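Model: You mentioned two targets. I'll fold them one after the other.
Researcher: Yes, keep them separate.
Model: Target one:
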Amino acid sequence: MSSQVPTGAASAKTQVMDVLKTEVIPALRTAVQMYTMDRDVIAQEAQAEKPSRAAWIIFGVSSVAMGLGAFGLVGIIMAPLSLYASVWVMDRVAQTQGGKPRLQTLLHCYALLSAAYAIGIIPRVGVFLALLVTLWGFVILATVVQEVYSLPADRAIKCVLGMIVAMVVTMGAVSMVVSTVQIRAQRDADVQRAKPVTDE
């Protein structure tokens, strides 16, 4: 009797591999080109009307990886939310600087750039490396904002600075919440250990 892979499972695996080969890997190449300050590629991606499927996949995987590396399990939820909030803030600030609302386009570009955040999951050094990448990423973001919103460099920098402030505040709040939860969990565990064991 020969064992065969169910048709549905084989089809799903084939579809996943197709998406990786035809969408995700090319999107990762695009992200690398954006990080090397390829203005033509940045200008091309700034024309997207909404995030591509590959961009969403990259954003999801990278933000979860960064969240796990920085905050543990809580980071799985908090990191994607904080990154999305950062994009939202940039879009709002860009509008105050004369740009038109283009949240979905900015999210597409930001999602591609978030690919580098995946290194945050590397033990011990991952968060530090992600921080270094983020610093260079701010320079790239200023260029992206220029292209997406057709703003001069000084106004684009203001948008990125507004996002940095929002990110610092958000990540600080997340750190406080995580620390509070960990302290309470440790205190409860200590109380349980301190209770005398009684024989029934």
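Model: Target two:
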Amino acid sequence: MRSLIVNGRNEVGLFSHFFSSIGACDYLEKNPEYDNVYFDLRVDIYDNMNIWEFLFEQGKLPDPKAENFRSGFTDFNYKIGCFLSEEDRNSIYRLIQKYVVIKKDIRAEYDELARTYADRPYVAVHRRATDHYMHGEIVDVQHFFRALDDARQRLGIPHVYLATDDLVTLEQFKEHYGSDLIYIPHFVRVTGDKGIHAHPQITDKKRVLKEALFEGLLLAGASYLVKTYSNLSMFAICMNRDLPYVDVDKHVYYDVVPSRFRLPHLGWGIRRNFRKFRQKLVDYIIGVK
């Protein structure tokens, strides 16, 4: 029998690694020549810490003949971040229930946080703003407000939980929702186009990991989710398969074509300006000012 080892990749964050690991668990079940999986997610941007061992219980140690299972080359990983079918959502939920156990101290810290800030029904939203450029132009905040206000009215739930690592987004939501807004005030947030996990000024990587996981769990605990194109949003609906949600950005033209199939002769600037024009046209058509 042999073991699979899931290795880390330096250019991606916690939830990309999480879903690659879930994909490895799926691969393990479909290939009986392997009998266990070991998560060796040591990543430079997290100070070479094994991010799985910090947050979750580890699997069995690998045997000497273990095969490296590179993070990112899994069946599920290609679907995560896009728009998930209910069949895949249920499959991922089952794998999470079987293979993922949050460490007791991490779970206890989260439970205390949830009792303090999420002690009432709420609708939740994740707005990706810092590193949105990885997939396309930033989604106008009015799209989120419109989807949230519709959900609040339909469900009769006034409170909104906001998950974001962007300070500008936080200020916009505070202005719009006032005392109905729930957010964790001491969580790290930044401005600019660097995601929190890769930001050069953020040095406490354990704090970043815990806060990212807690944001995902708080989203999963909502009565309704306004989700965006992100593995964090996807984590929430896979942790809670009964969570109703809406994809706020299905109208957005994300640049998900592999780089080798893009049009390099046009140049990055021309492609980017074309995407901006295309998005502004879509926003105008559907009435977002």
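Researcher: Noted. Anything on target two?
Model: The first strand starts at residue 2 and ends at 7.
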